[in-house]
Design goal:
Elements (H helix, E strand, L loop, with lengths): L4 H17 L10 E3 L7 E6 L2 E4 L7 H4 L4 H5 L1 H8 L6 E5 L5 H10 L4 E6 L2 H13 L6 E5 L12 E7 L8 H11 E13 L12 E2 L1 H8 L4 E7 L5 E8 L4
Parallel strand pairs: 4-5, 4-7, 5-6, 7-8, 8-9
Antiparallel strand pairs: 1-2, 2-3, 8-11, 10-11
Length: 246
């Protein structure tokens, strides 16, 4: 059956629009590579030459809540650097036991919202127990994500925070693309990673990242590097911003 001429012309006009609205393919430079020989704590999958680290399981949640963490990492300085305001909507991606979720909830207050994302249901159960203990369960919304999508509402968040998480993402390109969708125009994507440039930082190699490596991996996404904050004893704070208009 032949397509009527006017329908053919209509499809010809719409196809470019539909293609533009569709998911852009992953750039060739952002390809994944699998290698047989790899580090013991890696998954054998490489991205921009970096081996992706294994995810920390919920069994190690106690380490996230250790009493020495604030002094070791100066988490108070990190929270101040985020410059959160009452009413802000924040996503804590890879939230784990919720160490930062409840602290950020106190910053954004009852008019704000914290999306606490993790891929492990067990972590979210631990997290919400913490939120109830801290009386912020009405501010914090748990979200079970996947390895490719944090499942954040589109254009919903002012800031997305990943603390020692990005280097463990199985699909860093897809996850970052999905996170950017969740940001409001002008929203900030904040990556906190142990400094890969510093051999004195007592963390396994695959669980550290250099500033140059982070910038290289973010360069394939529609975000602008805003600034590097180096006030923490062992970690970088790297801030990227989504364009204010799309």
């Amino acid at each position: 059956m032949l397509m009527p001429k006017f329908l053919f012309l209509l499809c010809g006009c719409l196809c470019p629009l539909l293609l533009g609205a569709a998911e852009r393919p992953r750039p060739t430079e952002a390809a994944y590579e699998t290698r047989v020989k790899h580090e013991r704590d890696g998954i054998g999958k490489f991205y921009f030459g970096r081996e992706i680290a294994q995810v920390m399981g919920h069994q190690a949640a106690g380490w996230l809540e250790r009493r020495s963490r604030e002094d070791e990492e100066r988490t108070d300085l990190l929270l101040n650097a985020l410059e959160l305001k009452p009413g802000d909507v924040v996503a804590d991606v890879g939230a784990g036991s919720g160490y930062f979720s409840w602290r950020m909830a106190q910053k954004v207050g009852p008019t704000g919202k914290i999306f606490a994302n993790d891929i492990q249901p067990e972590m979210l159960e631990l997290l919400m127990a913490q939120m109830r203990k801290r009386h912020v369960e009405k501010i914090v919304e748990p979200i079970l994500g996947t390895v490719q999508d944090p499942q954040l509402p589109a254009n919903s968040t002012d800031l997305i925070l990943l603390v020692d998480v990005y280097h463990e993402l199985d699909f860093p390109f897809e996850m970052t693309r999905a996170m950017i969708k969740g940001l409001k125009p002008g929203g900030r994507l904040v990556l906190v990673e142990y400094r890969g440039e510093d051999p004195a930082v007592p963390i396994k190699k695959l669980h550290k990242m250099t500033t140059a490596q982070v910038k290289k991996e973010m360069a394939v996404h529609p975000v602008i590097f805003e600034r590097l904050i180096d006030v923490l004893p062992q970690q970088h704070i790297l801030i990227f911003r989504k364009a204010a208009t799309e």
